[in-house]
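2.7 Reproducibility. Because tokenized structures are sensitive to small changes in the input, we list the exact sequence used for GTP cyclohydrolase 1 type 2 homolog, including any N-terminal residues retained from the expression construct. No trimming or masking was applied before prediction.
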Amino acid sequence: MHPAAAITVADAVAALEAAYPPALAQDWDAVGLTVGDPAAPVHRVLVAVDPLPAVVDEAVAAGVDLLVTHHPLLLRGVHAVATTAPKGSAVHRLIRHDVALFSAHTNADAANPGVSDALAAALGVTVERPLDPQDDGRVGIGRIGTLAAPETLAAFTRRVADALPATAWGVRAGGDPQRTVRRVAVSGGAGDSMLHLARAAGVDVYVTADLRHHPATDHLAEPDAPALVDVAHWASEHPWCAQAADVLRAAVPGLEVTVSTARTDAWSLGHPSDPQRGGAAADDTGPEPAGAGAMIS
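Resulting structure tokens (single pass, no recycling of outputs):
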């Protein structure tokens, strides 16, 4: 009998690119194999959102052969990979320890299933279609779906906080806490560029990350605008890690695949304030808040 052929980086990359086709990536994106030899053998894989130093440390300590991340390490123009810079140091550390690095970014956002499908599933939302369809309408950024039963925005915000990994600022919502929520739009990662699509879709609430003040307040001022639920960027994309791990396990039997335990959210400290204070100092009588909102940590 001949020994079974070794699983290679190329085998894992082929499985990931079948699930998350590079053609779906935005023109500005940098996806695929960033570090490593396609012919190198792979036994252990770690999946994470970010290729930050803590994740690279985790990969090295676990003895993995391939690190799969959502966010690319070298997204913007790079002119040096000296060890004096964090990204350069990461490249050298990965090479020194024979760890390949692969990323699936906006192609994983648009794929079916992809990042927003994983987010929707975590929240108990049954997906119907993309929020911003591409090609045949089956793929695209964001998802629209429904909850099994209606609930208030306050209850839904708690649902989101309970479903996603904990972060320093938790989950915040804009809108009437007693508003009924049934139809939901979600978009993992920064999503305020699609606020107009959420309004046009007629959903009750839009869940995304990195909502900025002016787009959010302008949106909420619109008649019949969906309520907003804003979560940490990392937390919104973390459910994808389990999805990508399952892709590898199913397509390449024999791989040992784990999801990173490192929390790579940018924020390490948060403290809720009293919304009744408005904009005044603690010992003053300030104005009432202009819009109803809630924060859950």
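Residues 190 and 209 are 5 Å apart (CA to CA).
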